[in-house]
Amino acid sequence: MILVIDALNRDTFGSILDEMYQLRARVFSDRMGWDVKITNGREIDEFDDQNPAYVVQLDEDLNVTGCARLLQTTGPHMLSDVFSDILCGEPPLRSALMWESTRFCVDHDRLDHGKGGKSIAHATCELMVGILEYARTAGIEDIVTVIDPIMNRILKRSDNAPYDYVGETVGMGKVKAMAALLECSEERIKRVRAFASITGNIFIPENELAEMMTAKVRPIMTTDLQDYFDDQFSSATNEREKAATRALQQALGDVSLH
Amino acid sequence: MELIDLADMPNGKSDFVGHLRNVCESLGLEYASYASTHPLSGTVHAFTTYPDRWKNHYMEHGLHLQDPTLEKAARSIAPVDWGRLERSANFQSVFSQAYDFGLPDTGVTIPVRGPFGEVGLFSVSAPLPTDGWQKLRTQIIGNLQSSAVYLHDAVMTSETVMKSLRFPHLSSREKEILQWVAAGKSQQDIGDILSISLRTVEVHLRSTREKLFALTTAQAVGRGISLGLITPS
């Protein structure tokens, strides 16, 4: 499932964003060894302050399993600034109809050992379809995306090969990085969907997700604790005690949410 | 879509409102507006095709301070359909007043981010039922994106100091492709000569046109030559 988080709804999905920053720290610092700034186990840079859009992938339990960050190429973005090595110092492409995707990653650990059994390739396809479909709705025709050679191979194998690259493949930390071009065409989306057997709408409606996040809290209440609250309720002698029990239960629910 | 060339107006003054009217007419829209704050001079640029009585009411009541089509859309990278703003209190306030002036509440705002991080906001609207509006928006969204950036760049370079700061920076690839266009080669030929895909040629040419503020590739060749970026062949 895909959720798009931007400046307009980020307050609602703050906990998901927080989890995403932690995933990025594990991937880009720990696994890929990129020179990224980690604060409190979270990878956040100055482009996160530019109100980008995040395409976030969630599993059935609403854990973050993948993400990408989108910025317009008409304004400040990574290829025009920090990734100038890839472009060999050349100015980047700038177009109203092209977005830049960076920090594209999926959670290898969770996808390898997770109970859903979803493969890395499948997750990459879904995330990619999410980016392409979201961009297409916005009238965008091409994506320039910074990826590593492993991701590049996954794209090629899943009928989603970039049509070209800009600049060069350069060393970055433990791996290399490159800038690939993908057109947001109906044909490409169809191909990737067919390869990964993705059907139907992959985007989660925002209000439904907000409800699911509340529902997720409930099972955390253990049976013992629930029994305790039931006892408290039945032995309550007045409205004040009942209200206090309800408030405590509510507070515990809120705590486990974070 | 026919765009009014905003670069070479005879009297040196660009007709931004005329450009907005032209966009409305060719895309089947009712109203269009553009607003931005200049990153260096702090000058506010605002143009609109809305009727004067609404403009006056809007300014008198300081509606720009609470208009969610400005404040919220400025923080998005994607076009913001006004339907997404309906739940905010400010939306109800601004649009109930707009309703009294007979103005539509179906529209979309395209945020443009410029190289200095400045934001331009291009809004269009049309009095259509929801499904009709969504259909139209889907059809014209690419055009709207291009028009928005074109207009924003035109407004930003209308001040002399920005013109020099925003000298177009073409990459070697972009120059190479434009040079081959100047030599009369087709896009397919250029792809073959440089061993790159047709799409790569197209994408670089689009970027070149936008950087050179040209509406057509022929115009981009002309500007490229006059700026000394390529040589006449």
Automatic annotation (TrEMBL), chain A:
- InterPro entries tied to this protein: Acyl_CoA_acyltransferase (IPR016181), Autoind_synth_CS (IPR018311), Autoind_synthase (IPR001690)
Q: Which UniProt keywords apply?
A: Acyltransferase, Autoinducer synthesis, Quorum sensing, S-adenosyl-L-methionine, Transferase
Q: Which PROSITE patterns match?
A: AUTOINDUCER_SYNTH_1 (PS00949), AUTOINDUCER_SYNTH_2 (PS51187)
Keyword Transferase belongs to the record = yes
What are the leading ranks of the lineage?
Bacteria, Pseudomonadati, Pseudomonadota, Alphaproteobacteria, Rhodobacterales
One Gene Ontology term of the biological-process aspect is: signal transduction
PANTHER family found in the cross-reference section: ACYL-HOMOSERINE-LACTONE SYNTHASE, ISOVALERYL-HOMOSERINE LACTONE SYNTHASE
Any one GO MF annotation of this record? N-acyl homoserine lactone synthase activity
Q: What is this protein called?
A: Acyl-homoserine-lactone synthase
- Catalysis: reaction(s): a fatty acyl-[ACP] + S-adenosyl-L-methionine = an N-acyl-L-homoserine lactone + S-methyl-5'-thioadenosine + holo-[ACP] + H(+)
Pfam families reported in the protein's UniProt record: Autoind_synth
E.C. number? 2.3.1.184
Does Acetylation count among this protein's keywords? no
The record's similarity note reads: Belongs to the autoinducer synthase family.
TrEMBL record, chain B:
Listed A to Z, the keywords are: DNA-binding, Transcription, Transcription regulation
InterPro entries attached to this UniProt entry: Sig_transdc_resp-reg_C-effctor (IPR016032), TF_LuxR_autoind-bd_dom (IPR005143), TF_LuxR_autoind-bd_dom_sf (IPR036693), Tscrpt_reg_LuxR_C (IPR000792), WH-like_DNA-bd_sf (IPR036388)
Alphabetical list of SMART domains matching this protein: HTH_LUXR
GO terms in the biological process aspect are: regulation of DNA-templated transcription
Q: In the record, what terms sit under GO molecular function?
A: DNA binding
The record's listing under Pfam families reads: Autoind_bind, GerE
Query: What's the superkingdom here?
Result: Bacteria
Q: Per its record, how is this protein called by name?
A: Transcriptional activator protein LasR
